[in-house]
Amino acid sequence: MDIKHHLSDELLSGYAAGTLAEGWSIAVATHLALCPACRSRFKQFEQIGGQLLDAVEPQKLEASTWDSFKDRLQKTPQSREPSAPRFEIKQPAVIPEPLRSYVDGDLPDLKWKSLGRGAYQVPIETGDSETQVRLLRIPAGKPVPEHGHGGRELTLVLSGSFHDGTGLFARGDIEEADADLVHQPIASPDGDCICLAVTDAPLKFQSWLMRLVQPLIGI
């Protein structure tokens, strides 16, 4: 497996700090399970974070300062959003952990839902209200409708490959798209392409027909 498309420093540092939402964390951790190069970079971010914590000198709080701090905590609304999870990185499989636990199995166990034109999805439930997470299966040689993005999109290839004008993405490769990218991924002709896709906003389809059915397919 020759992975050519890797995680950005922003995503790795956010994952190391535990600040990513659950959906992004699933994509990052699953890529790390497949990519030795990014695992090595991730360890460096963890080491940097540990060194920064060690360099912080604890400050002695006066009684009045502590009382003020407790008072602020009591008055601050507590968020009900779940904290971003941290995942143990395990040996890669067709669907590696942590994603395998989210879908309760491997490819033969999945219950695909039709999107039309031979494409399928498996929506993945999380405790995260910020992102939407799904598996996508695109038929060999077929395109995804051309679209832009209302926010960020992470696409991690688990099986097969696709190309979209920015490059070829195969197993383990991850593509990070934003509002500046309009593309039309096309699955390679040698087999279906199965991807993990995480978004934080609806896609912006160029076709009026796709915009019409978009509420029905939930993408």
UniProtKB/TrEMBL annotation:
InterPro entries: Anti-sigma_ChrR, Anti_sigma_zinc_sf, ChrR-like_cupin_dom, RmlC-like_jellyroll, RmlC_Cupin_sf. Residues 108-198 form the ChrR-like cupin domain. This is Transcriptional regulator. It comes from Brucella tritici. Gene3D superfamilies: Anti-sigma factor, zinc-finger domain, Jelly Rolls. Transmembrane segments: none annotated. Signal peptide: none annotated.
